[in-house]
Amino acid sequence: MGEELLKIEGLVKSYDGHTVLDGIDLTVHSGEVLVIIGPSGCGKSTLLRCINGLEPIHGGKITLSGEEIRNGSKNLPTLRQKIGMVFQSYELFPHLTVLDNITLAPLKVQKRTKAEAEEEALKLLERVGLKDKAKQYPRQLSGGQKQRVAIVRALCMHPEVMLFDEVTAALDPEMVREVLDVMLDLAKQGRTMIIVTHEMQFAEAVADRVIFIDKGNIIEEGKPKEFFNSPKTERAAQFLNIFEFESVKD
Amino acid sequence: MNTEFIFKYLPLYEKAAVLTLRIGVEGIIIAILLGIICALIQYGKVPIIRRIVSVYIELSRNTPLLVQLFFIYYGLPKIGISTNAEVCGAIGLGFLGGSYMAEAIRSGLETIEPIQAESALSLGLKPAQVMRYVILPQAVSVSMPAFMANIIFLLKETSVFSAISLMDLMFTAKDLIGLYYKTTESLFMLVVFYLIILLPVSLLGRFIERRLRYAGFGT
């Protein structure tokens, strides 16, 4: 594992006096795949949004390679280029083709040439099996295809860390697999990733480290095998048990 | 119907149509610029200026163009600004249209979910770039039907220009009726010329709406 890439110290975030994140300390190393799990409303997604500077924070500090990420600061657009984010609801731009969706930021933000940006976009699209969709509009794609395009769009900016916010939660089961496969592929390439997910088996397969958040605090942290097989805290055990059902009929 | 009369005064109508169209286009350009500025101020929730914009919008939408024109035409010279009828017409139309355009654009902007902007920001785009490349194109396509309806509405509103003695189409028709009592011919020409101006705009609007409709289909 590489050097420290992302460092979060004592992060506090609240909405209207209600504390969502209550002093989060977390360090992510270069090349690490970190999976965050926890019940709905525990603050997982808010944590990702804070890392991307989309939310003002009320305490603590977030740094990426030593540079502070703060909502409203001048260098935020520069820092965000290093942080790719994929949303649950895809958020492709409906008025642009798949190719234009992917090359918009490389062209306008990184000022790359059209030929070079499109070449890379097509290469990445081929990798996720969507090269033939380059000229189509988002509305012509299935949910799984849209999400793969969204991943490619983030990748094309060459981010140092990728954030995935429940990216399969809106997909039907058949499409979940195609998106998770792309993410497994990225993990194999050694990308730094922070993944919020409810797909437990996937989490176990992809993660270097798992953290469990509840009520704005990190309750438990560990290697995926240990965490899923023998969670140390009662709260985590209780949460994981929700996913097992006993047969009700003989 | 007296065709001889019609052909005799055709050039008069042509001149009036050109004047109507010119002031109409000038006024609409002012209206669009004013509308975009007001819509962005309201969308961006700029403090104080936003209140001024609200007052302007209510004032402009709830008073007749004729009254606004009178204020501009007779009022401006009173405070020392000398001007001519044509400039007054364009300003008046722009003042009236600005609020309608602002409301059309604002309602388009508000249909775009904030998370669209967030996803653009997360790619490293600056707020102005997010507006230009992601929000505005989608908002414009949503606003387009209202936008085109406003343009047609404003072109029709030019018919009150005759009140400040601009020799537009309405003025010409009224003048000819007054001089020669050829009511049928004069009004017939008036309708024809308004249609010549407005039908292409209407058709163009429908064409643009169809071209832009893609943004209405989910993400």
Question: Would you give an account of this structure?
Answer:
The complex is a heterodimer of chains A (250) and B (219). Chain A has nine helices and ten strands. Chain A is of the alpha/beta class. A six-stranded mixed beta sheet of chain A has the order 6-7-8-3-9-10, with helices on both faces. Chain A has a four-stranded antiparallel beta sheet with strand order 2-1-4-5, covered by helices on one side. The longest helix of chain A is centred in the C-terminal third of the chain and has 16 residues, at 173-188. Residues 215-219 of chain B have low confidence and may be disordered. In chain B, helix 6 runs antiparallel to helix 8 (183-212). The termini of chain B are far apart. Chain B has helices at residues 3-43, 49-61, 65-78, 85-110, 114-122, 127-157, 169-180, 183-212. Chain B is an all-alpha fold and 219 residues long. Chain B has a single domain, classed as MetI-like fold (Orthogonal Bundle), CATH 1.10.3720. The longest helix of chain B is centred in the first third of the chain and has 41 residues, at 3-43. Chain B is built from eight helices and no strands. Chain B is flat and about 70 Å long.
